[in-house]
């Protein structure tokens, strides 16, 4: 940017690094990032490039080899880039994969240019009883409680891939989280977590969770990331690490429809809700030792982070709570109905109530705006500031709404078998 001083340039470098990390992980932008983007056309252009790059990488590429001269040119450009940057400061670890994506995008873009001029090979379709929606690397992954555990990958209103996950019992998906290019789905009926790859769509692995899964969260890190879970009976652990598991409560179990609890890594602590006792527990994420227990009352079932280190906790008995870094309640909003899923984008929160309502909460003014919706089962915040909602039942589907609750698009559903 013309007239930019050294400090401005360093700040923009930091902002662009955060944009790359959040777009790469499918995370929403923080209020601080949005505020910076409003006044910085250079960083807005960088975000636009990242989103276009991600879209290009997700396009179908025809099965053909690139011309020999193209391969030579791309490799030559890569070597020149490597030579130029070798004398510069070593890039942040999370940024090293972007040049690889740029190289892949250059090849994919040239090969797929003709395909971009024709309609997508995906076809419009209906969704069977959507229960969970996750922002995946290749679009939206929708898991259905239709008896067959159907998974559908969406790009816009197109189903690009579909499979049946099948289990000993009809699947009952309660939550999904993304970690890199993988999605992890909690199937409470079959006491398992499915690790799903989306390019191509396939179940990579099934992790047994003997007591049933009540909540999940994922966090990236130098070791490749971790997925934490809470069981129905009150244990907390990490996927793939059966030796590290602790108990925060001892319960006999509960009906599938009541299986819900929040798990969130925030500020170096693992927040866990135990809705049967109205508690929020803070754990050390490495040892899983309980650091603190806070009785917030009601029945907290979901958690979401806020900028500045605060955490939002959703009480299914009709409250949205703001917790400080120690888990103490510092603000409360009364809500209609019995909301059980929470999504947050900047200063707007959306909560869903399966009984037939979506509620928008302005986290600054405190304004609460309900909206009737037949059978909302899940809501997530998307990186562009919108929300995706999974609507179960025959009249449901998946819809994307902006922060004013205006529907951008909807894909119809159909009843499960």
Overview of the structural elements:
With 417 residues, the protein is α+β, with helices and mostly antiparallel strands. It has two domains: 6-59 and 61-116, no CATH class; 209-414, 7 Propeller (Methylamine Dehydrogenase, Chain H). It has five helices and 29 strands. α1 (6-25) runs parallel beside α3 (41-58), α2 packs across α3 and α3 (41-58) crosses α5 (97-116). The chain is globular and about 55 Å long.
Attribute tags:
single chain, 417 residues, alpha+beta, Methylamine Dehydrogenase, Chain H, 2 domains, five-stranded mixed sheet, four-stranded antiparallel sheet, 5 helices
Question: What would you say about this model in short?
Answer:
The chain is 21% helix and 41% strand. The chain has 5 helices and 29 strands. The strands form 7 sheets. Strands 1-29-28-27-26 form a 5-stranded mixed β-sheet, with no helix packed on it.
What is the secondary structure topology, with strand pairs?
Layout lengths: L5 H20 L5 H9 L1 H18 L9 H19 L10 H20 L10 E2 L1 E7 L2 E6 L5 E6 L2 E7 L8 E7 L2 E6 L4 E7 L2 E8 L4 E7 L6 E6 L3 E4 L2 E7 L15 E4 L2 E6 L4 E5 L6 E6 L4 E6 L5 E5 L3 E5 L5 E6 L6 E5 L2 E6 L3 E6 L5 E5 L3 E6 L5 E5 L5 E5 L5 E8 L3
Parallel strand pairs: 1-29
Antiparallel strand pairs: 2-3, 3-4, 4-5, 6-7, 7-8, 8-9, 10-11, 11-12, 12-13, 14-15, 15-16, 16-17, 18-19, 19-20, 20-21, 22-23, 23-24, 24-25, 26-27, 27-28, 28-29
Helix pairs in contact: 1-3, 2-3, 3-5
């Amino acid at each position: 940017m013309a007239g930019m001083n050294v400090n401005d340039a360093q700040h923009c470098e930091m902002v662009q690094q955060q944009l790359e990390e959040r777009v790469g992980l499918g995370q929403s932008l923080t209020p601080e990032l949005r505020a910076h983007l409003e006044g910085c056309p250079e960083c807005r252009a960088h975000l636009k490039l990242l989103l276009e790059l991600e879209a290009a990488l997700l396009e179908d590429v025809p099965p053909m080899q690139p011309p020999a001269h193209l391969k030579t040119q791309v490799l030559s450009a890569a070597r020149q880039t490597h030579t130029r940057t070798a004398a510069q400061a070593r890039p942040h670890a999370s940024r090293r994969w972007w040049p690889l994506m740029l190289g892949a995008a250059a090849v994919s873009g040239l090969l797929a240019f003709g395909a971009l001029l024709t309609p997508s090979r995906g076809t419009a379709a209906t969704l069977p009883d959507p229960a969970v929606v996750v922002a995946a690397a290749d679009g939206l992954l929708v898991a259905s409680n239709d008896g067959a555990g159907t998974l559908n990958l969406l790009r816009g209103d197109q189903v690009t891939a579909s499979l049946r996950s099948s289990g000993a019992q009809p699947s009952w998906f309660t939550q999904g989280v993304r970690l890199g290019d993988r999605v992890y789905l909690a199937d409470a009926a079959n006491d398992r977590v499915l690790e799903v790859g989306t390019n191509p769509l396939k179940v990579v692995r099934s992790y047994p969770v003997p007591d049933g899964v009540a909540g999940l969260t994922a966090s990236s890190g130098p070791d490749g990331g971790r997925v934490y879970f809470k069981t129905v009976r009150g244990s907390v652990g990490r996927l793939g690490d059966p030796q590290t598991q602790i108990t925060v409560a001892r319960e006999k179990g509960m009906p599938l429809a009541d299986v819900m609890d929040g798990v969130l890594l925030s500020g170096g602590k693992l927040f866990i809700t135990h809705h049967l006792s109205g508690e929020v527990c803070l754990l050390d994420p490495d040892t899983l030792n309980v650091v603190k227990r806070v009785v917030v009352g009601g029945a907290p079932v979901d958690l979401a982070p806020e900028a500045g280190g605060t955490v939002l906790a959703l009480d299914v008995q009709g409250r949205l709570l703001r917790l400080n870094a120690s888990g103490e309640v510092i603000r409360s909003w009364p809500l209609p109905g019995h909301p059980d899923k929470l999504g947050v984008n900047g200063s707007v929160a959306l909560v869903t109530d399966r009984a037939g309502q979506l509620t928008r909460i302005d986290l600054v003014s405190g304004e609460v705006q309900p909206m009737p919706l037949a059978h909302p089962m899940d809501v997530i915040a998307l990186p562009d500031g919108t929300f995706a909602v999974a609507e179960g039942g025959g009249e449901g589907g998946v819809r994307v709404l902006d922060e004013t609750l205006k529907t951008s698009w909807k894909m119809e559903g159909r009843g499960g078998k």
